[in-house]
Amino acid sequence: PLRNPPENILLRAVLGALCVMLLSHSVQAEDDTEKLKQSLQKRLSEIAITDLKPAPIPGLYEMVFGTRVAYVSADGRYMLMGDLIDLDGRRNLTATRRGGLVLKSIDALGEANMIVLGPSKPKRTLTVFTDVDCPYCSRLHQEVPKLTQAGVKVRYLLYPRAGKGSETYNRSIAVWCAKDRVKAIGIAKSGGKLEMKTCANPVDEHVRLGHEVGVEGTPTIVMDDGRVLPGYAPAAELLAALGLQDGKKTEAAR
């Protein structure tokens, strides 16, 4: 008897040909995407395109630069800036993608380069771009104990809106260079006098990251799911947004 009936041989041949076709199509798609990326990079030389891939809408590509997301046509002629919404799932696909990029950039900085308040094993985490002389930042700082008692870690990034060389910039550096940064930022936000020390510091890196994230004012709050909240919000609203309305007390702020 035949070990391999003709129909089995034919089936294997068809499957083999199909695999070759699929692989060829995949390689061609990757080549087309890379060519489009190179073409766009030449036309948009002022930005660095970090990722390009087909978007959920046929004929469009998702383009990433920094923490920004845009959509471009397959011929590279048209670009759209805006949110892409999946109506079936009621999901903002652009916001989800953008949030992931923001969190990746913040995590790359590392907590060693932040001023951290709150529990060592938090339920949720907020990262706040703050100006030490901003009144609304001071109001938010007064709410921080309520957040940390509910299990929220608060991570401060120093963002002096007055710019490099300003009094606020120098006070931001003094906060970072203080022996107790948490105490120093509290003094600064209450208008107290700081010892104007200088040392190696990440303030410029905080500002650069703020520009990348799109910070336009302070405070700007980044939630641990990637949502960005511009401006002040009381602890009760923040806890509600985090799903911790009835947050039980854990470890208090340092």
Description:
- The protein has a 5-stranded mixed sheet with strand order 7-9-8-10-11, sandwiched between helices. A 4-stranded antiparallel sheet has the order 1-2-3-4. The chain has a two-stranded antiparallel sheet with strand order 5-6.
- The chain is built from 7 helices and 11 strands.
- By secondary structure, it is α+β, with helices and mostly antiparallel strands.
- The C terminus is likely disordered.
- The longest helix is centred in the first third of the chain and has 38 residues.
- The protein starts with 5 loop residues before the first helix and ends in a 13-residue tail after the last helix.
Key words describing this protein structure:
single chain; 254 residues; alpha+beta; five-stranded mixed beta sheet; four-stranded antiparallel beta sheet; 7 helices; elongated; disordered C terminus
